[in-house]
Amino acid sequence: MVTALAIAEKVTDPELPMITLADLGVLREVSEVDGRVVVAITPTYTGCPAMDTMRDDLEHALRSAGYQEIEVRTVLQPAWSTDWISEDGKRKLAEAGIAPPSAAPKSVSGPIPLTLSAPVRQVRCPQCDSADTEELSRFSATACKALRRCRTCLEPFEHVKEI
């Protein structure tokens, strides 16, 4: 029988089907004890609407492989970061025309400073690699992506925001 970890690592993200949950960094742990499989996943952000689908897809893949006793747990600490996306995952995003995130801002302890304007980011176009891009909307098809346009090739594209 294929290991539960090997099966779980192949389950794709419902909103970004070109990458796996492992590539996205939300698949935290898979353990097998006495025929029981426990999977830990972390949402990309609080209230992520894809969590139920991720859980269902993991359970379905594991049941299809012969595992019967499955528990999928949600782990909130530490909070997910786009830094958890694998290099392979970032490459797959870019190949699909979605600009991958750069390094996430480093968090500091203490009060969080209030910023009223969106941070200025240089996001390269996944089509032509130009750095001359502009943000069209802070939100796209999902809350974790922004809609941008390249000023060089004029193609619109999505960008996974740094969290």
How many strands, which pairing sense, and closed or not: the largest β-sheet? Answer: 4 strands, mixed
H-E order:
HHEEHEHEEEE
Distance between the termini: 37 Å
Strand content: 15-25%
Helix content: 10-25%
| Low confidence ranges | none
Number of strands: 7
**Total of DSSP H or I helical runs spanning 4+ residues:** 4
- Gyration radius, in Å: 18 Å
Helix-strand makeup class: alpha/beta
Name the strands of the widest sheet in spatial order: 4-7-6-5
Q: Report the principal-axis shape.
A: globular
Provide the residue-averaged pLDDT: 90
Overview of this structure, please?
The protein has 163 residues and is an alpha/beta fold. It contains four helices and seven strands; from the N terminus they run ααββαβαββββ. The chain has helices spanning 4-8, 21-24, 51-64, 87-95; strands at 27-33, 36-41, 69-74, 98-99, 133-137, 145-150, 156-160. The strands form two sheets. The protein has a four-stranded mixed β-sheet with strand order 4-7-6-5. The protein has a three-stranded mixed β-sheet with strand order 1-2-3. The longest helix has 14 residues, at 51-64. The model has no long low-confidence stretch (mean pLDDT 90).
Topology:
Elements: H1 4-8, H2 21-24, E1 27-33, E2 36-41, H3 51-64, E3 69-74, H4 87-95, E4 98-99, E5 133-137, E6 145-150, E7 156-160
Parallel strand pairs: 2-3, 4-7
Antiparallel strand pairs: 1-2, 5-6, 6-7
